[in-house]
Amino acid sequence: MRLLLRQLNTLAGLTALEAVRQPVVILLTTSALAFVALMPVLFTHTLGDSARLVRDSALALQFVIGLVLGVVMACTALRAELRTGTAAAVLSKPVPRSLFFIGKFVGLAAVMLAFSFLMTAANLLATRTARIAFFYDWWGSGPLLIAIAAAFVLGGLQNYRLHRPFASRAFGGLLLFIPLAVALSGFMHEEGAWGAALPFEIIPAGALLALATVLLTSLALMLATRLDTVPALVVSSVVFMLGLMADYLFGRNAATSKFFALLDGITPNFQHYWAVDALTGNGIPWGYVANVAAYTACYLLATLAAGIFAFRRMELR
């Protein structure tokens, strides 16, 4: 058991490291963070509700970019290794195929959770900037933009001086500097209490989307056993859209039709993860997040089991 856990930890760590070394990961992540930081300036017709518009748009961007990022990383982590023979070399050792597949998922899930953490933190800062109509509080987006620039400077310096990979070092810089930007922004407020200007009610919404992106990544990894990047992205997008419309397409007829009840049961309902409307009321309770986490765990078990079943029957070269 100890050997299996050590192998799982090694596989997950190597997968996460290889994922953040991909240029597309740092490009998508940085572009999303920069766009969120600039949303208060780019959105001009806000009708006096700029904070809500920025908050909801940032959450929607996190959802969509998380889908694309999960599919690209999953296909690269599995499909590319199958083509190059890396997977065959690893599996020639005493490493079970199921452990190899789960290790890939754990590493990718860690990167997706880090991405969701960064996007939620950026949403906090950008929403603070737009919280007062027709006034830009630059203690929100300002530290965020500086943190992004500092992460790139750190990655560039380490690449130049120490010959370390730029993409992974810049991603690590984002994980270092953006929390510092949130901490600095929390102190800069006229009331003096830390965090008084930060909309912390966004955090449960970000946690829900983090669960959704992990589920989408598991689906993409399962599809990567049979499909390449573009077909996997198309199928994942179709499942994503069906999940968003599941209540309308299947749920309303589930009580009267076993067929629709079956479709409603096997389709992941992504409306459970999009609880933005609750933010305008009393907020999203953490008990609801826990229930959605349990719902996600059930789907993850099914998706990973199907992926392991497909991967065990693949012919490796």
Describe what this molecule looks like in 3D.
The protein has 317 residues and is an all-alpha fold. It has one domain (2-312). It is 75% helix and 0% strand. The chain has helices at 2-20, 23-42, 50-84, 86-91, 97-129, 138-162, 166-187, 202-223, 229-244, 246-249, 258-266, 286-312. Helix 2 packs antiparallel against helix 6, helix 2 (23-42) runs parallel beside helix 7 (166-187) and helix 6 runs antiparallel to helix 7 (166-187). It is globular.
Fraction of residues in helices?
over 70%
Shape: globular
The total strand number stands at: 0
* Tally of DSSP helical segments: 12
Whole-number radius of gyration? 21 Å
Main sheet summary: none
Quickly list its features.
mainly alpha, 317 residues, single chain, 75% helix
Summarize the structure.
The protein is mainly alpha-helical. It is built from twelve helices and no strands.
Topology:
Blueprint: H1 2-20, H2 23-42, H3 50-84, H4 86-91, H5 97-129, H6 138-162, H7 166-187, H8 202-223, H9 229-244, H10 246-249, H11 258-266, H12 286-312
